[in-house]
């Protein structure tokens, strides 16, 4: 800026008109004049630049005009060649080939017009591509064992078809069977004891055993248990009756004593009346009367005491019966509680015993069999086999890339091709999305550990229901059949676009990102 100011100053000093004036100006006026001169110079530079741009544009327009003129001449010649069928061509070869050229031109025009209209109007499916696997709608069944044990027998091999209830393996049941027998004996003993105590409590003549014992009384152990309880019932009944009988005999003796005392008292009272009559007549002695009165009092006292003893003995009888009932009731409650516990334990052991024979829960194919050695040990909860159900409906489990999840949702249609079928002769089948996982799933096969974290391919899971009506029509003709594990190529229809949109979208997307400056 300083150099420009100095140059302007020197240039203007050469002007004789200004040369004599500037020395007389103040510094502020001199600065104002320099600013004006600088602005004039900038305007002159812009004007020169504008002239250069105009010259460049004129040159470009001239070249474009020549190009357009040349193209126009060529088009005019071509049109004249097409329209003027009777004209004479400068080249005999061109004139001879005029018919085929015209045919080709019309074919090109029709192709371009029709193709353009089709690309602009005809809708094409927009799809998200995925791969999937045919699976059972209820997933494969994992066969496990709760307790584990030693393998005794293996009934199947991998790939075998099994029906519901067919055995897969058998575990050694020696230990559990012994436990069942012990617990069953305890349970039967408690049932017999319960029946005996009930009979004692209700003062029955005989024990009424439960059906479990009665139906198995042909078993020596059961017959022995019932016999022991019968003998115990009779012994306790006899013991109680004997004690009661002793009390009753004493009561009989005391009652006989009371009867005798009452008869003697009646006789003494007659003597007292006679003595009183004689004394009244002056013939009797008072001392004899006093003796009789004393004897009467003694007899009355003895009768009262004896009757009290009778009442006490009767109370002893009732107390003995009550104590027997209370004791029996207490024992019965304990036995009933023990019966319930024994029954639960027995049922639990029976359940464990029944599970030593591992059976198939569904009809299907043995996909995986992890047990291959007799005598091997199975841990608690360890997988024994994996069964692919055959009667369940089949669906496709598809892996959806993360970039496509925004356009994939439940209800969308899908086009399906199965890798096991010939693409040339097998049509594309249709399906419908029935489930989309809420979060991504990591591919365990490609996962690897890095810094204590698992990394690998992640994707969303979509379950696709196959249109079985459509499939069965084709399958009946071409003898096709779906099997779990078959691979499928899937196109999930997410919308429609024209071919023109397919061609223009990348361009418009790049244009959107272009011509931007940070």
Automatic annotation (TrEMBL):
<feature type="coiled-coil region">
    <location>
        <begin position="237"/>
        <end position="264"/>
    </location>
</feature>
<dbReference type="InterPro" id="IPR010129">
    <property type="entry name" value="T1SS_HlyD"/>
</dbReference>
<dbReference type="GO" id="GO:0015031">
    <property type="term" value="P:protein transport"/>
</dbReference>
<protein>
    <recommendedName>
        <fullName>Membrane fusion protein (MFP) family protein</fullName>
    </recommendedName>
</protein>
<dbReference type="GO" id="GO:0006508">
    <property type="term" value="P:proteolysis"/>
</dbReference>
<feature type="domain" description="AprE-like beta-barrel">
    <location>
        <begin position="394"/>
        <end position="495"/>
    </location>
</feature>
<keyword id="KW-0813">Transport</keyword>
<keyword id="KW-1003">Cell membrane</keyword>
<keyword id="KW-0997">Cell inner membrane</keyword>
<keyword id="KW-1133">Transmembrane helix</keyword>
<dbReference type="GO" id="GO:0005886">
    <property type="term" value="C:plasma membrane"/>
</dbReference>
<dbReference type="InterPro" id="IPR058781">
    <property type="entry name" value="HH_AprE-like"/>
</dbReference>
<dbReference type="Pfam" id="PF25994">
    <property type="entry name" value="HH_AprE"/>
</dbReference>
<keyword id="KW-0812">Transmembrane</keyword>
<keyword id="KW-0378">Hydrolase</keyword>
<dbReference type="Pfam" id="PF26002">
    <property type="entry name" value="Beta-barrel_AprE"/>
</dbReference>
<keyword id="KW-0175">Coiled coil</keyword>
<dbReference type="InterPro" id="IPR050739">
    <property type="entry name" value="MFP"/>
</dbReference>
<keyword id="KW-0472">Membrane</keyword>
<feature type="domain" description="AprE-like long alpha-helical hairpin">
    <location>
        <begin position="177"/>
        <end position="349"/>
    </location>
</feature>
<dbReference type="InterPro" id="IPR058982">
    <property type="entry name" value="Beta-barrel_AprE"/>
</dbReference>
<keyword id="KW-0645">Protease</keyword>
<dbReference type="GO" id="GO:0008233">
    <property type="term" value="F:peptidase activity"/>
</dbReference>
<feature type="transmembrane region" description="Helical">
    <location>
        <begin position="101"/>
        <end position="121"/>
    </location>
</feature>
<comment type="similarity">
    <text>Belongs to the membrane fusion protein (MFP) (TC 8.A.1) family.</text>
</comment>
């Amino acid at each position: 800026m300083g150099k420009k100011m100095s140059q302007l100053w020197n240039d203007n000093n050469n002007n004789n008109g200004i040369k004599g004036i500037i020395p007389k100006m103040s510094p502020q006026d001199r600065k104002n004049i320099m600013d004006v001169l600088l602005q004039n110079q900038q305007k002159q530079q812009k004007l020169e630049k504008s002239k250069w741009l105009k010259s460049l544009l004129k040159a470009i327009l001239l070249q474009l005009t020549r190009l357009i003129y040349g193209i126009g001449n060529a088009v005019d010649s071509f049109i004249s060649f097409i329209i003027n069928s009777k004209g004479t061509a400068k080249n005999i070869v061109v004139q001879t080939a005029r018919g085929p050229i015209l045919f080709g031109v019309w074919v090109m025009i029709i192709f371009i017009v029709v193709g353009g209209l089709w690309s602009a109007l005809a809708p094409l499916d927009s799809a998200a591509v995925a791969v999937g696997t045919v699976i059972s709608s209820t997933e494969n069944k994992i066969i496990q064992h709760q307790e584990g044990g030693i393998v005794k027998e293996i009934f199947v091999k991998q790939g075998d078809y099994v029906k519901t209830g067919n055995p897969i393996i058998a575990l050694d049941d020696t230990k559990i069977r012994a436990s069942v027998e012990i617990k069953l004996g305890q349970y039967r003993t408690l049932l017999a004891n319960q029946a005996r105590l009930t009979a004692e409590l209700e003062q029955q003549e005989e024990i009424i055993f439960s059906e479990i014992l009665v139906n198995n009384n042909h078993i020596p152990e059961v017959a022995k248990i019932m016999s022991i309880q019968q003998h115990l019932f009779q012994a306790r009944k006899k013991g109680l009756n004997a004690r009661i009988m002793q009390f009753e005999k004493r009561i009989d003796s005391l009652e006989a004593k009371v009867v005798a005392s009452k008869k003697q008292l009646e006789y003494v009272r007659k003597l007292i009346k006679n003595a009183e009559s004689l004394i009244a007549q002056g013939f009797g002695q008072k001392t004899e009367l006093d003796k009789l009165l004393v004897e009467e009092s003694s007899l009355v006292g003895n009768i009262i005491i004896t009757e009290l003893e009778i009442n006490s003995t009767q109370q002893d009888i009732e107390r003995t019966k009550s104590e027997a009932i209370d004791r029996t009731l207490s024992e019965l409650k304990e036995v009933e509680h023990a019966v319930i516990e024994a029954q639960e334990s027995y049922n639990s052991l029976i359940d464990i015993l029944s599970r030593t024979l591992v059976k198939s829960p569904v009809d299907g194919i043995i996909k995986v069999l992890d047990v291959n050695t007799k005598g091997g040990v199975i841990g608690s909860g360890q997988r024994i086999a994996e069964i692919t159900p055959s009667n369940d409906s089949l669906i496709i489990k598809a892996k959806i890339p993360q970039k496509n999840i925004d356009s994939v949702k439940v209800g969308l249609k899908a086009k399906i091709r199965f890798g096991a079928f010939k693409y040339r002769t097998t049509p594309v089948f249709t399906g419908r999305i029935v489930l989309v996982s809420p979060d991504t799933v990591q591919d365990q096969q490609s996962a690897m550990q890095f810094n204590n974290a698992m990394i690998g391919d992640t994707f969303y899971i979509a379950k696709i229901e196959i249109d079985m009506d459509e499939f069965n029509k084709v399958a009946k003709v071409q003898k096709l059949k779906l099997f779990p594990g078959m691979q499928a190529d899937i196109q999930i229809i997410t919308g429609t676009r024209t071919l023109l949109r397919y061609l223009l979208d990348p361009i418009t997307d790049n244009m959107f990102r272009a011509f931007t400056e940070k």
